[in-house]
Amino acid sequence: MELSNILGALTGNDAIGAISQNLKIDQNQVSSVISNALPSLLGAMQKNASTPGGAEALAKALGDHASNAGNIINNLKGADLVDGSKILGHIFGGDLSSVVSGISKQTGVASNAVGNILSSIAPSLLALLGKQNGNSGAAGLGGLLGALLGGGSQSQSTGGLGSILGGLGKIFGK
């Protein structure tokens, strides 16, 4: 799976529609939250992976979720919000409420809806990253996350997160 496919799986029309339907939140709001949140999610994961203990913990979480990467749309339709909340707590630690509040202010979407949207995508994001990371374990995380953020060691032909999220405006007419 290419890096662009990882992000496309979470930001495509089918994924946005599944989350919108599951949470009963407008598709444009879901799209706005995801496009504003992905850089924070990936950046926080990259920060966590910058220490040996953090990298090991993240690699384990990715490995645990990798088997669920098969049908992301079904996963998003029946997202486990409790698992997602736990994942977010590990990713952001004590900063979670300020991240949710910041995304809420940026998007105009209520904080509780932002939290639910993030909780919906967190397990699928780990599944997709876990599948991409494969057997690389903690050693491969820096390159994987760096490539997604647009500055890593994996192939840059995918354009990183910036080009993926930049294209969302075209998809949703913004």
Quick structural overview:
This protein is an all-alpha fold. It contains 10 helices and no strands. The model is unreliable at 152-174 (pLDDT under 50).
- Mean pLDDT across residues: 80
Share in helix: over 70%
Low-confidence stretches: 152-174
Q: Tell me about the biggest sheet?
A: none
What is the 3D shape? globular
Please state the structural category: mainly alpha
Percent of residues in β-strands: under 5%
Order of helices and strands: HHHHHHHHHH
- Specify the number of helices: 10
Distance between the termini: 28 Å
Total beta strand runs: 0
Overall description:
- The chain is mainly alpha-helical and 174 residues long.
- It has helices at 3-11, 13-23, 27-48, 52-65, 72-77, 81-92, 96-107, 111-133, 141-149, 160-171.
- The longest helix is centred in the last third of the chain and has 23 residues, at 111-133.
- It is globular, with a radius of gyration of 15 Å.
- The chain starts with a helix and ends with a helix.
- Mean pLDDT is 80; it is low at 152-174.
Keywords:
single chain; 174 residues; mainly alpha; 10 helices; 75% helix; globular; disordered C terminus
Topology of this protein?
Blueprint: H1 3-11, H2 13-23, H3 27-48, H4 52-65, H5 72-77, H6 81-92, H7 96-107, H8 111-133, H9 141-149, H10 160-171
